[in-house]
Amino acid sequence: MKVVFIQIKGGNYGGVWQVNKIVGEHLIKDGYDVSIVSIRDDHLGIKLEHDERLKLITINEKDLWHTHHLDDFKESIKNHHYLELVKRLYERLLNNFKLKNDKKKLNKYLDDVNPDYIVTTQYQLLDMLDKKYLNRTFHEQHLSFRESFRHPATKKTLIKYKDLVTYIWLCEKTKETAIKNGLSNSISLYNAVRFETKERADVLNNKKLVTIVRLSIEKRIDKMVNIVNKLFEDKKYSDWTLEIYGDGEEYENIKKLIKSSQITLMGTTNNPKDVLLSSSINLNTSDYEGFSLSILEASECGVPTVTLNFGESVEEEIINGKTGLIAKDENDYLEKLKLLMDNQELLEKMSVNTKKNNERFHIDKIIKEWERILKPNFK
Description:
Blueprint: E1 2-10, H1 15-29, E2 33-41, E3 55-60, H2 70-78, H3 82-113, E4 117-120, E5 137-140, H4 145-150, H5 152-160, E6 166-169, H6 172-180, E7 186-188, H7 203-206, E8 208-212, H8 221-231, E9 241-245, H9 251-257, E10 263-267, H10 272-277, E11 281-284, H11 293-300, E12 305-308, H12 314-317, E13 324-327, H13 330-342, H14 344-357, H15 363-373
Parallel strand pairs: 1-2, 1-4, 2-3, 4-5, 5-6, 6-7, 8-9, 8-11, 9-10, 11-12, 12-13
Helix pairs in contact: 1-15, 2-3, 8-13
């Protein structure tokens, strides 16, 4: 059986690639023929390690996935930058022309391969598929339902194809919300943790808070830094540190917010397992998550998470009070963090619980659900 995963960008370590890779590689082990097709490449020069039998295809290797949107045009007009406006309009038209060519090449590839199933991972891709492929397409929406419908273009596209493709959401609550809002052709599949380990972090002696995250606005690392700045004002916690791993457009802003010498921006890491095994508590302050890979990875290492409520999937990833703590606001977050740092018995118990609970997100369990939906008689 042939399965083609399609993503808008390749050549990076992003969450979409991680999910497609781990599922694709395990489908190959079970006899499937699997390709991951990227419309364009990020040009980062990264060599992505993967099973050699996993076919990686890029439709347009020259151009980046980028275009100007309505807000960009409004900004140019507001600032009276009319030459910039003309330039942006030209770039938008040129990109639209190139996308039409990309669409032709994509569907030519699909014609040649004739896949049994297609899995798309961004809403824009649904408009790029020939209609004949829609009845064999699963669209995996990596955002929560709330965020998907908050974005007008995403909402419009999901409604447009609601009777033509099957939607995969990343947790049960998101699926149920989608069905209640008219997307009846919806199912749910959890993300799988991308690595497994028999080791468990020495959470009592590591005395390290950690986050591994993309430094973008929706991750709200500014809130995290403000909370931990306050925490470290208390000399009681002078032997603790916070390490922030990641990069992104918010890097410089976050750097300016750091007041404590116990907080360090570490840059990116390609070895999250070792980082987490040397940590005690994982921190999350995201506004929203589809299904957080970083929480799964922390849990695999026995590192419990303290988080703000990031929406639909939070209570399916974290059993509040057992495998982690879910805070209502920043003040509550600070109190819950102190509670866990001060109570060694609770911290150790949560470490054991979260590692045990994470077994349900191991790929050997998740892949069975994928293979169930990839059967010809699936309903």
